[in-house]
């Protein structure tokens, strides 16, 4: 969030006009370096943002659990898990066959009792479904969900590294979630409520899994992970460094600032397109599976951090473009800049008496560096804690704007408090003679 020095642009233009064309012509090597930095940074911004999201969300257990934690209250996710658990129990326990077996002697003597088997079977199946959904809505399941996702994140790391053990594992061409603990908990609740026929009914391991991702390209995923993971944490720093280097090397910094803002905004739109395409592919891959109805909410939640960051950087790009326009030599920007500068310095001049004027003289002499520090402070506020949000962007921009206004007020006070240079006697005599 580097802030160009807008108040000095007007004065710089006067001195610039006095230079020869050769002095004003930028170095070809320097201009080429700026172009290279901007092109590389623009090309790497989207990969860096996605890699940073993956490194922070998928590699960080705490952030992963915090990200997917709200899914415990998602109706779509609860329905998907409830359907899987209920179908698994009902598939392994043929309630109607068990009732026929239990009442076989009675039904032989009283055939009309056969008509009760269907309703009784339906009632028991309804009880199973109700108990499953009550458990999924309980605090006990919320705790189990947190623990399961903690293990899932750790297991996902092992999958990407080639180790296929844990709550999430690779089965053939599918990545699956093990819900055996949920099934065991529900079975115990049903047994405690008198449905003891479930006590000795085994559930095969294959029926304790929910398909999360169809992954025929798992080998490619592992290759990408092996390559990207070591550099993911630093790639976004490299991109920021390239943007900053381009700004430092540029002789036309306002224009470069506009280009940087446009690059950020364009990459934010590119990420939005990638997320939209990826969302549809993810939904299509899981259509027809148990987890299919919950695939959209799962995808949106898992990538919520990246989506929030994308929105922030789109708005940040627009803000940087406005800053570049404000600081540039264009007529409209120069007019607005001059009006703001003169207005603030006029207010500051009215406060020039006393300590304000003294402080203003120091600020006027160091205004350029103070503006750089303010820009860096705004960047720190925005990025602190790796928790970028639109609210934080607003407050960081507001902080920068307020501090820049204070600096310009003090500059006006300092200039008004600085005594004018006395005219030397020789110059005064010469002026009189003329």
At a glance:
75% of the residues lie in helices and 3% in strands. The protein contains 19 helices and 3 strands.
List its traits.
single chain; 434 residues; mainly alpha; 2 domains; three-stranded antiparallel sheet; 19 helices; disordered C terminus; transmembrane helix; membrane; Integral membrane protein; transmembrane
Give a verbal description of the structure.
Residues 13-25 have a biased composition (Basic and acidic residues). It comes from Kribbella pratensis. The chain crosses the membrane at residues 31-53, 231-249, 256-275, 312-328, 369-386, 393-411. By secondary structure, this protein is mainly alpha-helical. The protein folds into 2 domains: 6-59 and 229-417, no CATH class; 63-216, no CATH class. Helix content is 75%, strand content 3%. It has 19 helices and 3 strands. Strands 1-2-3 form a 3-stranded antiparallel β-sheet. Helix 3 packs antiparallel against helix 14, helix 11 (218-249) packs antiparallel against helix 12 and helix 17 packs antiparallel against helix 18 (390-417). It is elongated and about 110 Å long.
Oligomer: single chain
- Shape, please? elongated
DSSP strand content? under 5%
Rg estimate, integer Å: 34 Å
Number of contiguous helices: 19
| Distance between the ends | 53 Å
Largest sheet: 3 strands, antiparallel
Beta strands, count: 3
Low-confidence stretches: 7-23, 427-434
Q: Strand sequence of the main sheet, in spatial order?
A: 1-2-3
């Amino acid at each position: 969030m580097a802030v160009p020095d807008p108040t000095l642009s007007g004065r710089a233009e006067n001195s610039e006009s006095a230079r020869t064309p050769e002095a004003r012509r930028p170095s070809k090597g320097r201009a080429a370096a700026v172009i290279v930095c901007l092109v590389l940074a623009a090309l790497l911004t989207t990969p860096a943002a996605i890699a940073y999201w993956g490194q922070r969300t998928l590699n960080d257990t705490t952030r992963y659990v915090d990200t997917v934690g709200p899914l415990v209250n998602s109706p779509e996710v609860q329905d998907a898990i409830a359907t899987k658990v209920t179908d698994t129990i009902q598939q392994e326990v043929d309630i109607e066959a068990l009732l026929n077996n239990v009442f076989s002697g009675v039904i032989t003597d009283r055939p009309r009792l056969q008509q009760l088997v269907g309703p009784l079977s339906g009632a028991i199946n309804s009880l199973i479904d109700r108990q499953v959904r009550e458990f999924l809505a309980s605090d006990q399941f919320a705790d189990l969900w947190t623990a399961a996702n903690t293990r899932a994140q750790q297991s996902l790391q092992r999958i990407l590294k080639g180790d296929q053990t844990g709550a999430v594992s690779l089965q053939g061409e599918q990545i699956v979630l093990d819900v055996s603990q949920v099934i065991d908990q529900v079975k115990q609740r049903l047994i405690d409520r008198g449905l003891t026929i479930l006590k000795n009914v085994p559930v095969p391991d294959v029926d304790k899994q929910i398909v999360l991702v169809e992954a025929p390209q798992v080998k490619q995923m592992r290759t990408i992970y092996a390559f990207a993971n070591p550099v993911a944490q630093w790639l976004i720093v490299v991109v920021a460094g390239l943007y900053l280097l381009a700004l430092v090397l540029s002789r036309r910094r306002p224009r470069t600032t506009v280009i940087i803002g446009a690059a950020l905004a364009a990459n934010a739109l590119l990420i939005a397109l990638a997320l939209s395409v990826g969302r549809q592919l993810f939904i299509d891959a899981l259509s027809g599976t148990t987890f299919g109805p919950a695939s959209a909410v799962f995808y949106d939640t898992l990538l919520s951090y990246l989506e929030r960051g994308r929105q922030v950087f789109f708005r940040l790009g627009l803000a940087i473009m406005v800053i570049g326009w404000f600081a540039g030599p264009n007529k409209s920007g120069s007019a607005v800049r001059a009006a703001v500068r003169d207005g603030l310095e006029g207010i500051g001049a009215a406060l020039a008496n006393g300590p304000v004027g003294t402080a203003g003289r120091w600020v006027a002499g160091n205004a350029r560096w103070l503006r750089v520090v303010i820009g860096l402070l705004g960047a720190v506020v925005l990025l602190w804690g790796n928790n970028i949000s639109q609210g934080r962007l607003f407050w960081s921009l507001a902080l920068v704007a307020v501090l820049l206004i204070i600096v310009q007020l003090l500059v006006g006070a300092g200039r008004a408090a600085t005594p004018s240079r006395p005219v030397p006697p020789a110059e005064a005599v010469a002026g009189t003679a003329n």
